[in-house]
Amino acid sequence: MATEVGPTPVKAPASGGAPIHHGPKGVGEDNKILSQGKWASWLLAPTIIALAVVIIYPIISAIVMSFQKDAGLDPATGLFTAGGPAGVQNYVNWIAQQCSAPAGGTVACPPGTLGAQFWSATATTFFFTVVTVAFETVLGFWMAMIMARAFKGRSLVRAAVLVPWAIPTAVTAKLWFFIFAFEGIANKLFNTSILWTGSEWPAKWAVVIADVWKTTPFMALLILAGLQMIPAEVYEAAKVDGATAWQRFRLITLPLVKPALMVAILFRTLDALRMFDLPYILTGGANNTTTLSILVINQIRQGFNAAAALSTITFIIIFLVAFIFVRFLGANVVEQSGATGKGKK
Amino acid sequence: MKTPKFLLPVATAGVLALTLSACGGGGGGGTTAGGGDAEAGLDGRGPITYVQGKDNSNVVRPLIAKWNAAHPNEKVTFKEQTDQADQQHDDLVQHFQAKDAGYDVVDVDVVWTAEFAAKGWLQPLKDKMAFDTSAMLKPTVDSGTYKGTLYAAPQTSDGALLYYRKDLVPTPPKTWDEMMSMCSIAKQNNIGCYGGQLSKYEGLTVNASEAINSAGGSVLDKDGKPSLNTAEAKAGLENLAKAYADGNIPKEGITFQEELSRQAFQSGKLLFLRNWPYVYNLATTEGSSAVKDKLGIAPIPGKDGPGASSLGGHNLAVSVYSKNKATALDFLKFMTSEETEKFYATQGSLAPVLGSLYTDAALVKKLPYLPVLKTSIENAVPRPVTPFYPAVTKAIQENAYSAIKGEKPVDSALSDMQKSIESAGAGS
Amino acid sequence: MTAATSSATSLRAEQDRGRRKAQNKEKWAQGRTYISAAVILIWCLAPAYWMVVTAFREVGFTYDTSILPTHVTLDNFNTAFDTSFGNRFGQALLNSVFIGGVVTLVSLIIGVFAAYALARLNFRFKYMVLGFILGASMFPGVALITPLFQLFTNIGWMGSYQALIIPNISFVLPLTVYTMTSFFREMPWELEESARVDGCTQGQAFRKVIMPLAAPAIFTTAILAFISSWNEFLIASQLSSDATQPVTVAIANFAGAQPNQIPYTAIMAAGTIVTIPLVILVLVFQRKIVAGLTAGAVK
């Protein structure tokens, strides 16, 4: 058992594109795919239905709404009346940062409107995403490597790492708000008097620190699971061959953990692009910490249809990021798994 | 059979989604006045539900128990929301949009009244539903009124107080300038001078409107149009900006919300504090308080006399979708009766809306700040009464914050505020 | 070491030195591991420590910044569990465990099906399905609430457990499917083939051979799914009722004795209580994970 299976995981990433061999039993390729397709549809149906009801339905209904005008006030009665079809006006307004003018038509959104914040919120969202995911990947990898080693108290460390994650975000945000208060423990401990939530960069870093603290365990755990799938013999063999620690990391650990790592980074990125609770509670979006999701919820309170358009724009932005990710960075479970599937059958 | 079967669920889901979104009716506010709804159920009697945010001091439950004992056929069920104002607002919006008949009587923050009324969700309190407000303080009644019609009955109120250190300041300042001149005392004692709630959140709207109203300006005029391009509004906002630039408001003042400012004052680091009445009890009783016996209270300072406080508090309204409006109206009257108001004040430290209670000897003995609070509420101006409140408050916060921090001249902050509010009112 | 004269002893000394050097290196590596572990512990636990210290402080001393516990009291925990004001923290804890448990179980089962299909079967539109599943985690969660609210109101599910469980399942499914797919493609599937040669059906082969090997990945995914459902707040805050609200909503309901007062100490007490079951869960499953992992490493 041991000898037979050992090298498989090493082989898998290398097998890249070309299928290795095809059904030697003489069954037609098309038929095989058909019967597998039938199986696959049964196996996938529950997942697809669950996603369709709870996520796809709201997305479609939001897209429908995004082409409607928000309710306007009837000056005679002082009551809101339905806005009617808007075409793509809601989208244009966001992207060009245009707001309704009192005289009719649109003007550039004055500072203080949500419309004026679209591009800055986009920039902030990307800043948070890049910085937090980078920190979380590096820290998470490091933590996973430590936790993969054998030492006394390992289970303690493994449990402790999950503590930040186990605390609900609402509590985490309050906790960090409390820590970062002017008279709070952070300033006292480091003997500083930083206005953590009162100026731009400290506020941004406060959010980054809190987010990294909270979600690094997610990364660490996924990477750890990836690390554990590497057979110890591979390392032994490399050691015998005289590979340095850095070479072992670069040539063995990294490529073999890559599938798990990429899934972790991909999902963290998607999550970070939708970051909401932490900056919302910690800074209220002040000092340029308003993310796209915060902008969405602020807009929901002012007009749902424009908010639906903004949600759709956010969705498209995230989709593009994910596409680039999968296409160019190899976070692609399809291609690799497809190859493996074909290879084995 | 030739098309892969797994696409079937996707297709089904798509069809399902489209059908449902047609039923959903665009969910977002496409509302007509609901004229039919407002006429329905006026004589209806039966069990109802009362919806309110977290019952902090356990005053609602005993009242409802009392009501239920007296009205076995019209029992009230209490639906408690979270303690977060934003979530209460969103929860109400969701239920109104769904035309939920299960939310009969709702407790609305004073600033939501106009929005809900304009959406056609609140039953006008007139004709059969008429509600008597003659004994109530006028500013509180104004907060429940939209376009000349009463939509919500005032239940509790709240006004700002100026807390000061009576060991350092023998007589409290009556005007803003007088208060600023006393800041030298703070300097001598090496503490901060004045603190309010200037972090960028709802509290900043409260503080900035107070500054503008106290200087004789206003955020919105009588017709609900912005009126910020005035010398008075400028003078008001400038007071805050100048105090921050001079250091009379300590630099951490820009991070203060209610609790952090209370904490700074309680630990003896501020000479003056603008805050709500709740601070009184805590500052005089909490173990860590350094100002227990040195605490003075006064109306907030204005231009040449008491300032114009922003009004807090909650109103009670009946949903147009309620089926038992006659019961709902009776319950409204019960919840705003003198007896209830007294109970609220003594048990929950909630400021009454009935003027007579502020001079009730027994109450004043328990809540010594009541006479001062009466002055505050009598001079109070409701926060802008507008169906676009969410946009208006954002416009004020965003621009006042920049102005106070000195990132933007007061003039352009006010003109941006003006334009933002105009744009919100222009509809989209 | 005293006799450095004879060449034999010198040789032994040489070997000795070599061994000691290796031992030192080992010790040094071990030492570094412990230092790193300590750094991780401090980074992860220091803020949590502050939460616990605050949880045990008297309300009047909420803002005290002494690093060691002062003004210690259990009042905050009593406040948290006190039911007289309508707080149902105990009930909410059970709700969270129940919802989290069902979400984890269901999403794992159907997620494993889907991942198996994606990793092992050939069929058309595989890319489309993967894109669809991934696309489901790209829409801002805050914008899902209103449509879901209307959907559940229309079918009379408001405030029910299923109204909380089903959205949560959908939120964790994409991650579950992707993680399991990426692990499944690392599996030694030859074993499945040989089991089938031995007369197992494909289902049996999967259950008896593949599942045990996949155990660590499944447990990891289970923890991910459980915590993510445990943390969910937005949907629950709008769709739950008093009877079904999970613990995150219950905490948001904590109120101070005075309006405007934020009961930090009680919130931190609640945070502490909420964290404990998770830590216990991890410590219990720890065994499983490690056992599964070692089995995996040996093979």
UniProtKB/TrEMBL annotation, chain A:
According to its UniProt record, where is this protein mainly located? membrane
Its BP terms in the Gene Ontology are: transmembrane transport
Location comes to: Cell membrane; Membrane
Q: Which InterPro entries match?
A: MetI-like (IPR000515), MetI-like_sf (IPR035906), Sugar_ABC_transporter (IPR052730)
Its record classes its membrane topology as: Multi-pass membrane protein
Q: Note down the stretches annotated as region Disordered.
A: 1-26
Keyword terms of this UniProt record: Membrane, Transmembrane, Transmembrane helix, Transport
Family matches, as SUPFAM superfamilies:
MetI-like
* Annotated ABC transmembrane type-1 domain residues: 122-325
Q: Name one GO cellular component term.
A: plasma membrane
Assigned protein family: Belongs to the binding-protein-dependent transport system permease family.
Q: What is this protein called?
A: Putative ABC transporter permease protein
Taxon lineage? Bacteria, Bacillati, Actinomycetota, Actinomycetes, Micrococcales
Automatic annotation (TrEMBL), chain B:
Q: Which GO terms describe its cellular component?
A: ATP-binding cassette (ABC) transporter complex, substrate-binding subunit-containing
Keyword Cell inner membrane among UniProt keywords = no
Keywords in alphabetical order, please.
Answer: Signal, Transport
Q: Name one GO molecular function term.
A: maltose binding
- Pfam families named in the record: SBP_bac_1
Task: Extract the signal peptide range.
Answer: 1-24
**One GO BP annotation of this record:** maltose transport
Q: Which family does it belong to?
A: Belongs to the bacterial solute-binding protein 1 family.
The protein in question is named Putative ABC transporter substrate-binding protein
* Source species of the chain: Arthrobacter globiformis (strain ATCC 8010 / DSM 20124 / JCM 1332 / NBRC 12137 / NCIMB 8907 / NRRL B-2979 / 168)
Automatic annotation (TrEMBL), chain C:
Q: What Pfam families does this protein's entry cite?
A: BPD_transp_1 (PF00528)
Looking at the record, the residues that make up the ABC transmembrane type-1 domain are 93-285
Under the heading Gene3D superfamilies, the entry gives: MetI-like
The annotated regions of Low complexity compositional bias extend over 1-10
Any one GO CC term of the record: plasma membrane
Q: Which biological process annotations from GO are given for this protein?
A: transmembrane transport
Enumerate the transmembrane spans: 33-52, 97-118, 130-152, 164-184, 205-227, 262-285
- Region Disordered: what ranges? 1-24
**Location (main, coarse):** membrane
Q: Topologically, how does it sit relative to the membrane?
A: Multi-pass membrane protein
Where do Basic and acidic residues bias regions lie?
13-24
Keyword terms of this UniProt record: Cell membrane, Membrane, Transmembrane, Transmembrane helix, Transport
| Keyword Cytoplasm part of the UniProt annotation | no
Q: What family is it from?
A: Belongs to the binding-protein-dependent transport system permease family.
PANTHER family, sorted: INNER MEMBRANE ABC TRANSPORTER PERMEASE PROTEIN YCJP, MALTOSE TRANSPORT SYSTEM PERMEASE-RELATED
Q: What name goes with this protein?
A: Putative ABC transporter permease protein
